[in-house]
Every structure is written in structure tokens, then in C-alpha cells.
Design goal:
The complex is a heterotrimer of chains A (649), B (179) and C (145). With 649 residues, chain A is an alpha+beta fold. Chain A has 18 helices and ten strands. Helix content of chain A is 62%, strand content 12%. In chain A, helix 15 (449-474) packs antiparallel against helix 16. The chains are: A alpha+beta (649), B alpha/beta (179), C mainly alpha (145).
Chain lengths: 649, 179, 145
């Protein structure tokens, strides 16, 4: 009964999305205020019914209702309740429902908070969001119904993929989706602006906190995925340039460029068309990611059950939404001119370079991800574009970006006045270089050019980011949230760079065949296998090993890697034993049982790896702090006069 | 209405992308085509599954078309295609040679006894060296080799009578069916 | 069907006894370093998101053994990659070959960078020119509401 109600709620939600789109866009076009009000009500209603549908599915999972096909495929009677809820988004159909819920949520938030906006503009924003909602709900109802019944009901479920039975990975999709989907707000704003054919700086100030919030979630979502892969997948990697990872990283890069572009539009009224294009691009990349994961055009372990028929539907939807927005852009953007000017070394200039480099980065990732598809489609054969290519090529735009970041933070608006910062920056540059050489030589006894460059750039960015807040504090000047946020976020970038340089340069990964009593040594640490025993959980059984770690004879820790076989399916999983330290992680994972009491054990020494995720957290934190700046919370009067638009003759 | 061309660039680039996706949806990126097609079949000389003293290799089948079927008892798809292989063997058009890949000899022999044996001979490859030479990456795989000893076709995944008729039979010389 | 089986293989203990001792294989450190580098450059055809160094699949173990054998008989890195691509095609290389069909791939990032720089120069030059001719434009800010 509940699943049917959920299905019904989804149908109602679709109807409300249609109303939302129709009344929002139509009402704006006709200046019909009744319609505009109806659109807002439809938006609220849509959220309610999507939430009900989501709740119904969650209920079916919690109640172990195996007469629902999706529940039977992704759950198990012994699955702990937390994972039963997380299983809602564990596969294709449910994850679409999560997408729709996030979209409905953002729509509700925008509807509620946009009272100060011009009514027709607001209607257009809500209308565009409605169009997108229609797409997802229609997709679900037509091809991917999470409420489909299984008759006769299964006696037992197939269990949630054991990989997903983990806290970090359970929360990773909701956070990630809040980010992906959150870019739809900026997208809708951009479309509404393009439809109206004018853009003023208040628009930029309005859009920025929404974009920051979405971007913040996406940052955390990506970091969670990376961290999870490291401790769960057993081979100690943290980024694979897998198509689905790239599908989340590209919108992030576009979103970063967007935030920075919005800053210029807000301050000087410049880069309007760039900002609009970035707003369209960021969400377009989110949608593209959705397509790539579910259509089967690319190989990825992340991919949901692939189905070209579903892929065709999404592609059609993509073409309509993105193609429509880009045509709108081509039609309307030429009108948006600004007459302001800036000097060559101004902040505007640096931000322009920053965005060019970020767009170059996302373009190369797109190229590398899709190149196998291009070649296959042109019948040129199959090729793999893997980490060796990406790791090398990503440096091409990134190295200049990191170098310029240190200076750009301090460049003044309009004229590029560095002022007191100039002297400080020379000191920072010297300190960075010295620090990099010192770390390489003294700590790792290994001075390689790329490594030294990496450390130097990391220190450069970190120290440079600290200069402004420290200077202000010393002069007892105010430190607005926006400035503090910027400093924290940029510091995070440097910190992540620091971690990446360390781990990529100095990591050691080796496999050993160990029996009880055997030892191996890497990175100056000795690892001895001292025990093997059974390990049991609510829905798994396995083996746990004790690996005693010592250094120079002194005990450091005991790692306890596990290998689990889940009761429901025969997929054994590795749980690595990891010790976290300020300078390094020590990592042990069980590989294969080699027989006769010996196991293949993967040992890893990972210097500085934690700083990658710590850096990401700081990036997100910085964004959050910046979003709370007072100027975003002031109520904006409705745009009354046409004069607010800057249209060149 | 003037339309500066550069503003159309994003839309055009997107259109190109969509075109590729449309083609991409029809293709399977997971199917790795064999670089062996058109090349001489890699040689091997392996013990026969039934009798270790006996050796099996491509040389045994010179001057005629033959199929090499890579299989193992642990392979679910091999179980699925077994009926089709038996049917193809009954047609008597081409001999089917088995390559038993990374398997246990006793289990493999029992499998053939229980389920029927479509093979004229089976090469036993417990180490997988020959399989690697043939570019095998997942069982089952089936190769068609022509009378000049060249690999002409590879089927990745279970063989079905439908695939056999549509894709393999046209490549056979006419009139090879024997009573 | 193959995909389901492949996924199980990627996540499971090898069902056939394979010597997965992929640790120290060589006495000579240079050989060991070469081995470790080559196996990280070859893609596992079963667990496609991993190199054969990282993969648990039996095929990966077999391929690692082939690489070891080839190094022992003194073949160069290029020979080993050729050995693999003759059997499995370019797909098995994690780093795409440099050939006419991949020139666009290898040149792409540099081209994107160049394109970005070009656009920046055009835009900056235009704005600086405005700044020279119209000082008021340099001060211009949108109305603060």
C-alpha cells in the first residue's frame, strides 16, 4: 500500500512540476501575478509530494518490504537500519528519487527566500527549476520506477552492495547531490536573466551565496568519496580519474570559476556573459555526469546498471535543457555589455586568468574522459586514458594557477595596487622555496625537482593566504567574513597541494606474503603479522589480522586489517587497518589467502595524505564562512528601475 | 538580429558532443576488439585435457576452419553457452577445440562427462599462458580460425545459436556440412 | 553477464590458487623498480578501473607474472608494452599511445591553456585600452543597493 502511495505521490509531484514550469514561465511572460503565485505554491507542493514519495521508499526499506523490486534488490533482512535507509539511494532508481528530492528542496529554499526579487524574474527562476524537475520525475516514472512491485515477493533481499555499507559512503551521495543539484539554482538564475536580457550586479550578489552553498556541499562530497576510496577499497589510492569521479570534479571546477566570476560581476559589473556561461556550464556538467553514470557510454566501476534506453532518455533531456540554455545564451548574451575598465595587474585580471586556467583544467578532464568514446565512435579503436595521462596533464593549468594564486589574492581592484603586500610576498616566496628545500632534504632525504616545486607552491599559497588576515589583525582592522573565508579556502588549497605532493612523491606501496611471525619493512617501519582470527558482524563473517608496527624497535601501533565475506553475497571486502599520524598514514590490507597460513598483505607508507582531505575541508569551510558575510544577508529591495541594467549604446 | 558568432561556440561544441553520445550509446565500450583479427593464430602446444601424453595445438587443424572456445568450470557464461556449443558441434561444419582456462583437470573432465562434450579435443591451460597469447580476458570467448590459419572472428561472451548463424556461418566456406 | 562476473572477480579472493605474491620479485633493485613501474602502467582488463598492480583479479596476477618473466629474459619496457598491445590492443595501456589518432588528446591540454591565455590577453587589452581613454570607466562600480 505504502509503495503505491509513494508512486502516486511521485505522479502528483510530476503534475505539480509541470504546473510550476507552466505558471512560472508563463506567468512571467504574461505578467500574470495570479499565475506567478500559483507557481510558487506548486513549488512548495512539489517538495511535499517528492518528500512523501521518498519517505514511502524509505519506509519500504525500513520495513524490509521485499515485495518492492528495488528494495529486494538492494536490501537484506539482516541489514542494520542505518544502511537500510542509506540503501534508498544505493542504486539507480532510488538515487534518481534522491536527485529529485534535492532539487525540490533547493527549489523550496529559493522560493521561500526570494521574496525580495522582482516577481516575474522569480517566476522564471522557479519555472526553469520546474522544467528540470519534470525531466527527472518523468524519467523515473517512465523508465526507472523505484516502486515497481515484485510478484511474488522475494523471501529475502539481495543485500546492499557491501561497499556501500559504510558510513562515509552512505552519506556521500546526499551531500554530493546537494552540491550537484544546487548548481541548478545558479543555472535557473542565469536562464531567467538571459530570458529577460539584462543583468545587474544585484543579481550577482543574490546568486553568490546559493552558489557557494552548493559548491561547499560538492567539495565535501568529493572529499568524502576520495577518503572513503582510500580506506575502504584496499589499495590505498585516493583518486583514480575514473569517469564518474571526473564527472563530479568538472562541475566543481566550473563552480569554483563561477564563484570567482560572480565576485567580479558583483564588484564591477564586468564579465557578465562569462558568469552566465559558467552558471550554465556548472549545472550542465552536473547533468552530464548523471548521463555518463547511467548510460553505459563509458566504463566505470561507479556506473549504475547501464542501459542504453535510459541513456537515450537522459540524452534527450540533456539536449533540451543544456542546448536550450546555450542557445538562449547565444541569443541574449551579446546584449550584456559593460563599460568598466581595469588595469593589467588588477584583481579583475587575475580572476580572469584564474577562470581561464580552471576552464582549461575542466576542458582537459572532459577531453581525457571522453576521448575513448570519441575514438570508438569514429572507429579508430579502443584506447584507455588513465591516471598516468591525467596526472601529467592536470599539472599544465594547475602549476601556473597555484603560482598566480599567491599574488592574485593581494591584487587590488581596478588598478592592481599590491601595496604593503608586495614586501610580504617576497618574504613568503623566499620562505616557501627555503621550506620546500628543507622538507625535501631534511625530512625525506630526497630532493626532486617536481617535489620541491610542489612543496614550494603549496607553502607559497598557504603563507600568502595568511598574509591578509594577519595584516588586518595586526592593524586591528575589521576582518569581514568574506575576507576570512577567502583566506581559509585558499589556505586549504595550499594544504591539499602539500598533501598531494607528499604522498605522490614519497609513498611506498608493497605486497608481501606473510605468515604468523613474519615481518616486512617499508618507510623505516617494521610490520609483523602476529595473529589471525575470525571476525564477525551482523551480516558478515571474516578474518582479522594483527599487524604490529614498530620503528627502531619501539612499538608504534597495532593495525587490524579485515577481510569480510558478507552473508548475502560472496563478495569479500577488505577493511584496511590504518594508523593516522601528523606526518604519515600507515596502512595494511589483507589480500589473498595464499594457503598454509600465509596471506598476501599490502603495506603502505603514505606521507602527508591526511592533509589532502584536511585541505578540502578548509576549502569548504572557507566557502561557508564567506557565504555568511553580512552583505549577503542584507535584504535587497526589489529591482524597480530599468537603469540598473548597464546596456552599452 | 546580429548574432556574434563566438557566442554560438558553446552551443555548437555541445551539439558535437551530443552527436558523439548518440553514436556512443549504440556501442559497447567494454567490448575490446581483438588485435588478432586478420593475424595468424598464436601457436601453442598444450596437454590434452583427457590424456596428458597427447598434445593439442593449432597445427592439428591446418587447412580447415575451426573454432577455439575458451571455457572453465568456474565460468557461469560457459554453462549458459554449452547447449549452443553442443548444437553447433552436431551440425558438423567446423570442429570445436576447447581451451580449458585456469581450471582443475578433474572438475573439467567431470563437467564434460555430465553435460556433454562438444569438443574434438580440449587443450589444458592451467597457467593461462596460451590464453594470454590469444588475448583472452574473460571466459567464455570463442575464436574462428580460417583454413590459412588466420583468426577471422572473436566472440566475447556466451555463444548463442543466433550469433552463430548471423555472424559466424557467413564466414564459413559453403558446403562444409558433413553428414 | 560478463560484467556481473567481472565485478565479483574484482572484489573477491581469487578462486583459483594464484601466486599473488606480488611483492619483492627481483634481487636487482633496478629490475624491481622497472617491474613496479610497468605493472602500474597496464590496465586490468577485468577490473577496469585498476592497474594490474592493484587488481585482485586472476588475470591481473597472470599478467604480472608475464611481465616478471619478460623482465627476467631482459626485454625492454617498450618490448613489454608491445607484447601486451599485440594481444590486447591499446586498451591495456593506461597511458595512451602517442600516434596520429591521439595527437588531439596529447596536444589538447596545451591548446586549452593557449586558448585561455589568448582570450585573457584579448579581454585585458580591451579593458586596459578603455582605462587609458576613459578614466571614469576605471572607477565605475555598479550601484550598491
Amino acid at each position: 500500500m505504502i509503495p503505491e502511495l509513494g508512486h502516486f505521490a511521485l505522479v502528483i509531484a510530476l503534475l505539480l512540476s509541470m504546473a510550476q514550469a507552466l505558471f512560472g514561465l508563463g506567468g512571467a511572460a504574461r505578467a500574470n501575478f495570479a499565475w506567478l503565485a500559483a507557481a510558487r505554491s506548486a513549488a512548495v507542493g512539489q517538495f511535499v509530494f517528492v518528500a512523501l514519495a521518498f519517505g514511502a521508499l524509505a519506509w519500504a526499506f525500513v520495513q524490509r518490504d521485499f515485495s518492492v523490486l528495488y528494495v529486494a534488490t538492494n536490501s537484506h533482512s539482516e541489514l542494520p537500519v542505518f544502511y537500510r535507509v542509506a540503501a534508498v539511494w544505493g542504486a539507480h532508481e532510488g538515487s534518481l528519487l534522491l536527485w529529485s528530492l534535492c532539487l525540490a528542496g533547493w527549489t523550496l529554499a529559493v522560493t521561500a527566500a526570494s521574496g525580495s526579487l522582482d516577481a516575474p524574474f522569480r517566476g522564471r527562476v522557479i519555472g526553469v527549476l520546474g522544467l528540470i524537475s519534470i525531466g527527472f520525475q518523468l524519467f523515473m516514472l517512465a523508465t526507472s520506477n523505484p516502486f515497481e512491485r515484485l510478484v511474488p515477493a522475494a523471501p529475502e533481499g539481495l543485500d546492499l552492495n557491501p561497499l556501500l555499507q559504510d558510513f562515509a559512503l552512505a552519506v556521500h551521495p546526499p551531500i554530493l547531490y546537494l552540491g550537484y543539484v544546487g548548481f541548478s539554482v545558479a543555472f535557473a538564475f542565469a536562464c531567467a536573466t538571459l530570458i529577460e536580457g539584462r543583468l545587474d550586479a544585484a543579481w550577482a550578489r543574490w546568486t553568490r551565496p546559493w552558489t557557494l552553498a552548493a559548491w561547499l556541499f560538492l567539495t565535501i562530497g568529493i572529499a568524502l568519496g576520495s577518503w572513503w576510496a582510500y580506506y575502504e577499497l584496499g589499495w590505498g589510492g585516493w583518486w583514480f580519474w575514473d569517469p564518474v569521479e571526473n564527472a563530479s570534479f568538472m562541475p566543481w571546477l566550473a563552480g569554483t570559476a563561477l564563484i570567482h566570476s560572480l565576485a567580479v560581476t558583483e564588484k564591477r559589473g564586468l564579465f557578465k556573459s562569462w558568469t552566465l556561461l559558467l552558471a550554465v556550464t556548472a549545472f550542465s556538467l552536473s547533468l552530464l555526469g548523471t548521463f555518463l553514470v547511467r548510460s553505459g557510454v563509458l566504463i566505470s566501476v561507479h556506473a549504475f546498471a547501464t542501459d542504453p534506453a535510459r541513456g537515450a532518455f537522459i540524452l534527450a533531456f540533456l539536449t533540451f535543457v543544456i542546448g536550450g540554455a546555450l542557445l538562449l545564451y547565444a541569443w541574449r548574451a551579446p546584449r550584456l555589455k559593460s563599460s568598466a575598465a581595469f588595469e593589467a595587474t588588477s584583481r579583475e585580471s587575475f580572476l580572469l586568468v584564474n577562470n581561464a586556467l580552471l576552464v582549461a583544467a575542466l576542458s582537459l578532464i572532459l577531453l581525457g574522459t571522453l576521448y575513448p568514446l570519441f575514438m570508438d565512435a569514429l572507429e579508430l579503436g579502443k584506447v584507455t586514458v588513465g591516471p598516468p595521462w591525467f596526472n601529467l596533464m592536470f599539472l599544465v593549468p594547475m602549476l601556473p594557477l597555484l603560482a598566480l594564486l599567491g599574488i592574485g589574492m593581494h591584487a587590488g581592484w581596478k588598478r592592481g595596487f599590491l601595496g604593503n603586500a608586495r614586501r610580504a610576498l617576497w618574504v613568503v616566496a623566499a620562505a616557501s622555496l627555503a621550506g620546500a628545500v628543507l622538507i625535501g632534504a631534511a625530512v625525506y632525504a630526497d630532493l626532486r625537482p617536481m617535489t620541491t616545486l610542489g612543496f614550494a607552491l603549496a607553502l607559497w599559497v598557504m603563507l600568502s593566504a595568511l598574509v591578509i588576515p594577519l595584516a588586518r589583525l595586526r592593524a586591528r582592522q575589521a576582518l569581514p567574513a568574506a575576507v576570512l573565508g577567502m583566506a581559509v579556502a585558499h589556505f586549504g588549497v595550499g594544504l591539499a597541494t602539500f598533501g598531494i605532493t607528499g604522498v605522490q612523491s614519497f609513498k611506498i606501496e608493497k605486497d608481501f606474503a606473510l605468515g604468523i611471525g613474519d615481518a616486512a619493512s617499508i618507510g623505516g617501519y617494521d610490520f609483523r603479522l602476529t595473529a589471525l582470527r575470525d571476525a564477525r558482524g551482523p551480516n558478515y563473517a571474516g578474518v582479522e589480522a594483527d599487524v604490529v608496527v614498530s620503528r627502531n624497535g619501539e612499538a608504534v601501533t597495532v593495525l587490524r586489517p579485515q577481510k569480510r565475506a558478507y552473508n548475502s553475497g560472496g563478495n569479500p571486502l577488505t577493511e584496511a587497518g590504518i594508523q593516522v599520524g601528523p606526518a604519515r598514514d600507515l596502512f595494511a590490507a589483507l589480500g589473498d589467502d595464499l594457503g598454509q597460513g600465509r596471506w598476501s598483505v599490502r603495506l603502505q607508507y603514505k606521507p602527508l595524505i591526511r592533509y589532502i582531505w584536511l585541505g578540502a575541508i578548509l576549502i569548504a569551510l572557507g566557502g561557508g564562512i564567506a557565504a555568511l558575510d553580512r552583505r549577503y544577508r542584507a535584504r535587497l529591495p526589489a529591482r524597480a528601475d530599468e537603469g540598473a541594467a548597464a546596456v552599452a549604446p | 538580429m546580429k548574432l556574434p558568432l563566438r557566442f554560438l561556440v558553446p552551443a555548437l561544441a555541445f551539439a558535437v558532443l551530443v552527436a558523439f553520445f548518440v553514436v556512443g550509446l549504440k556501442r559497447d565500450p567494454g567490448q575490446i576488439p581483438s588485435p588478432l583479427i586478420g593475424k595468424p593464430a598464436p601457436d601453442f602446444s598444450l596437454e590434452s585435457l583427457g590424456d596428458p601424453a597427447w598434445k593439442v595445438g593449432p597445427g592439428d587443424f591446418a587447412d580447415k576452419h575451426w573454432l577455439l572456445n575458451v571455457w572453465a568450470t568456474w565460468c557461469v557464461g560457459c554453462r549458459q553457452e554449452h547447449e549452443a556449443l553442443l548444437a553447433i558441434a552436431r551440425e558438423n561444419r567446423v570442429p570445436i577445440v576447447g581451451l580449458n582456462w585456469r581450471d582443475d583437470r578433474a572438475l573439467a573432465l567431470r563437467w564434460l562427462t555430465q553435460l556433454g562434450n562438444p569438443y574434438v579435443s580440449v587443450a589444458y591451460d592451467p597457467e593461462g599462458h596460451a590464453a594470454i597469447d590469444w588475448g583472452v580476458y574473460g571466459a567464455p570467448e570463442t575464436f574462428l580460425i580460417d583454413a590459412t590459419g588466420r583468426v577471422v572472428k572473436k566472440q566475447i561472451g556466451p555463444m548463442t545459436l543466433d550469433i552463430w548463424r548471423r555472424e559466424f556461418v557467413p564466414l564459413l566456406p559453403a558446403g562444409e556440412a558433413k553428414p | 553477464m560478463i560484467r556481473a562476473a567481472a565485478l565479483v572477480a574484482c572484489l573477491s579472493i581469487s578462486t583459483v590458487a594464484a601466486a599473488v605474491d606480488s611483492g619483492q620479485r627481483f634481487e636487482d633493485e633496478a629490475d624491481q623498480a622497472r617491474y613496479e613501474r610497468v605493472i602500474r602502467d597496464l590496465r586490468c582488463l577485468v577490473c577496469r578501473s585498476e592497474s594490474i598492480a592493484d587488481s585482485n583479479a586472476p588475470l591481473a596476477a597472470d599478467l604480472r607474472r608475464e611481465v616478471e618473466t619478460l623482465i627476467r629474459v631482459g626485454r625492454s619496457d617498450a618490448d613489454i608494452y608491445a607484447f601486451m598491445t599485440e594481444r590486447y590492443g591499446d586498451f591495456i595501456l593506461l597511458k595512451p599511445p602517442v600516434a596520429p589518432r591521439t595527437w588531439l588528446l596529447w596536444a589538447g591540454p596545451a591548446l586549452f591553456l593557449a586558448g585561455g591565455v589568448a582570450i585573457v590577453l584579448i579581454v585585458v587589452r580591451r579593458r586596459v585600452r578603455i582605462a587609458r581613454t576613459d578614466p571614469a570607466a576605471l572607477e565605475e562600480e555598479p550601484d550598491r543597493l
